[in-house]
Amino acid sequence: MRLRIPGRPPAEPERPGAREDDVSEPEPRASAPAPTFQRADRMRSASRTLALASAQLLLIAAALVLIGYVLGKLWAILLPIVLGLLIATVLWPLTRFLRNHGWPPALAAVTVLVAFLAALGGLVAAIAPQVADQVTELADAATAALQDVQEWLSGPPFNLQEGQFDDAVDSVIDSIQGNAQNIASYALTGASAVGNGLITLVLALVLVFFFLKDGPRWVPWLAAQTGPRAAPHVAALSYKTWATLSEFIRQQALVGFIDAFFIGIGLWILGVPLMIPLAVLTFFGAFIPIIGAFVAGAFAVLIALVSNGFTTALIVLGIVILVQQIEGNVLQPIIQGRGFNLHAAVVILAVTAGSSLAGIIGAFLAVPVAALIAVIYRYVRDEFDGKSPEVFDDGTRAKLADDEEGTTVVREQVAPAEEPDA
Prior knowledge:
The chain crosses the membrane at residues 49-69, 75-94, 106-128, 193-212, 253-270, 276-295, 302-324, 344-377. With 422 residues, the protein is mostly helical. It is 73% helix and 4% strand. Strands 1-2 form a two-stranded antiparallel ribbon. A hairpin with a 2-residue loop joins strand 1 (396-403) and strand 2 (406-413). The chain is flat and about 85 Å long.
């Protein structure tokens, strides 16, 4: 029996086998915090949100695929419409001038369209004789350049024998002859594509006439198909997209003219053949930003190399680089400002995607389409932010008005309380 000393707590019973030098080890601890009851609820909420977002993303992707499929099936109809709209943006200022001076809409549209076709015909008539006269000289120069390449390959460091070079040429000829049937089918496909292109061009020109004649009626008709609340947005967005498209065409035409003028002068001073065709190619290449300028410059350097030699080709390359640097760093910021706000990477990706989907036409239409998508996105974004993008810079808003002659779009002044925040 153990005695208990008053004021002292009772001693703990000894554990079997325990010794006085034993030290109890601390319980293991985890670095993570202990779970709470809210964790499971929040996890279920996050999973539900993630599932809804994934379902929405899948639905949006499916809708985009479906829209792309439908547009692909309707491409033969959409292409003339798009080309007609682009040409109409170029011809509309002159048509509007004639209409404002009392010309009937149909007569003004026909006059401007005929003048446009006459200008194109005159340009082709001016280029064709020069190309026909100098193509023989270029062919002879190319033959001489090929002989120079053969002599260069025969020397160090390649040291190719003449027979090896001839064998390579014969191998290429045999390959061409062996694939003659495929080449013929490709030629037939190309001829068919040319025929389809001519039909598309004729249809686009017919649509240009109607766009110039009846174009101002489009916005009232389209806005009238919607409700009273949506009509101002439809009208404002139509005006914004048309203004963006027109501004793009005018700016690229001015930039292309400046590039073609200075590069053409350089080719003329250096005596490079096909100066006018190369200048025209440079002008039209400006409508495919970045990529078009590169291709047009490469053609100019190649013809200078074949016709005038390596030194002239280097000078032409320097002129092309200088003009394009001035264009990209000086002209583009001054002319375009921040109107489009499209990054160069976006432009390159748009041109690449357009060319892969629809060839040259796709590359030509890629940047205008990207600019229009950007306009629509910014309009929707500003609407979500409550900035009232349907209100124009002069403080007015589009509104439908109906009278005995039909529906038209008028401007109404927005009350100060309705104006967007600064």
